[in-house]
């Protein structure tokens, strides 16, 4: 038995993996990783995989980045952790100062959680609690977009709409209001992204007009609905939404957990709409992909509604044990230094252009409905029928075939259902982008070769197989 197999057997004897039907591993090998370097992950038998999805969208400057490593080593000698209630430390103070500085004007307070879903819980609870502290107890519902994803904890699932993740738990979820997404994949033939996104705003306007008295906040994934299949829309929607939230007295929560830190082409997606949300939730690339942490930025107005004598019971008594962990903070500080020192956002423009040119030919593929891109995120949607955009039945798991082919070629491309996408670390080279495009083309050819199996029934269009 090879080393990979040995680790796999030990793993499968004791672990339960995330987002996985464990029975799949009776036929799909699990890949134990020994080390990482730059865009590469390497298994125990020396095979390398180009990490095209940044390990679930967290990595921005490569695995085992020497600059981030050094900061972590230095911090380890000083302080690994201290509770943040009643105590503080330089890394968390410096990181908070930096985040306030680089995010849109008006976001002046930072609250920490230790993963993205928990960050969403913080924003939802804070918004609800703000209105309560202001004497508006009736504002307790949240508005969300169809096909959105905000994490796996119960309130985060409640504001999500990817059936695969939420359907089972429906009886547990909060009562939210769902508005059709501005997703431009469904725009009428010949219509541009801006016009479609603007038109789709009518649904949001209607919802807010009818329900604003009972609504605490609208929550969106700005510009890209990630787990919903890398579906994209125009910034004009965010601008209209900001104006409407102001008009109706409703908070705007931007979940930039996936899209923050340059994924959309700007440091934060909200910059493209020129707006400041009431809550900005960051995680994933915040620490360069090193350690779990989330930051929730909000305004002084929100902060002041909680600031009072203890016995008024207006405080936000929410805590996560590892809040503001110093190691995560220095990883984040080192990441922000690299963004600044290497002028990364500007340099990424050339990489984004290269991603577009390397995959342009796929738009002509008979089973590709669309190749779409926003900044450093590029998605290729495989379909059964190109003209009608008829999706493949989810049970056929066409994306899984792309994933398996890519692994055999040395790439980690993990599609979302039938959507193959690139969301690479920013240290990828133009040659590596060409390699990914070749592998993706081969994988798509292979996965779309056979006709739809007649045995498949029970088609559920909003059921995304994670791969
Ligand atoms: C937009 C968005 N929000 C929230 C989350 C949840 O983050 P976490 O997995 O760290 O809980 C994710 C994770 O993919 C995400 O993409």
Automatic annotation (TrEMBL):
Site (Participates in the substrate recognition with KAPA and in a stacking interaction with the adenine ring of SAM) residue list: 19
Binding-site residues, substrate: 56, 149, 284, 319, 414
Cofactor: pyridoxal 5'-phosphate
Keyword Cytoplasm: yes
Gene Ontology annotations of biological process type: biotin biosynthetic process
EC number: 2.6.1.62
Cytoplasm in keyword set: yes
Gene3D superfamilies: Aspartate Aminotransferase, domain 1, Type I PLP-dependent aspartate aminotransferase-like (Major domain)
MF term (GO), any: pyridoxal phosphate binding
Residues the record lists as N6-(pyridoxal phosphate)lysine modifications: 284
Pfam families attached to this UniProt entry: Aminotran_3
Function: Catalyzes the transfer of the alpha-amino group from S-adenosyl-L-methionine (SAM) to 7-keto-8-aminopelargonic acid (KAPA) to form 7,8-diaminopelargonic acid (DAPA). It is the only aminotransferase known to utilize SAM as an amino donor.
Similarity comment: family membership: Belongs to the class-III pyridoxal-phosphate-dependent aminotransferase family. BioA subfamily.
Protein name: Adenosylmethionine-8-amino-7-oxononanoate aminotransferase
Biological classification of the source: Bacteria, Pseudomonadati, Pseudomonadota, Gammaproteobacteria, Pseudomonadales
Gene for this chain: bioA
